[in-house]
Design goal:
elongated, three-stranded antiparallel beta sheet, 3 strands
């Protein structure tokens, strides 16, 4: 039986499938801001920056002084869920110690 070209049962003329890579977009980042107040101690703010935001002592001191002199400062920048969790954790620790520390989250 002779080979048939084209049509059904013939050689395929379809192009090979190309694999397209899907690039995962980085999630948007949010800043956790610490706000100065007249009651939360500097030592407590440094402790929060070290324990919740994982800054070393020197960086925590720098951020705390920035918050103290400017009224607000960035504790860290994270994806939304992480930023919200860290802000809530910091404020929870503050409430447990009877401090009114305020943390807010805003887009970078």
């Amino acid at each position: 039986m002779p080979e048939r070209h084209g049509g059904q049962g013939g050689a395929s003329t379809a192009l090979p499938k190309t694999r397209t890579e899907k690039k995962t977009a980085k999630p948007p980042l949010y800043k956790v801001l610490l706000h100065n107040d007249d009651y939360t101690t500097m030592e407590f703010v440094v402790k929060v920056l070290e324990t919740v935001f994982h800054h070393d002592a020197q960086q925590a001191m720098r951020i705390m002084l920035h918050v103290h002199t400017r009224g607000v400062g960035v504790a860290g920048t994270y994806p939304w869920e992480v930023a919200e969790t860290k802000a809530e954790k910091a404020m929870s620790l503050a409430r447990d110690s009877d401090f009114p520390l305020l943390c807010t989250v805003e887009p970078e």
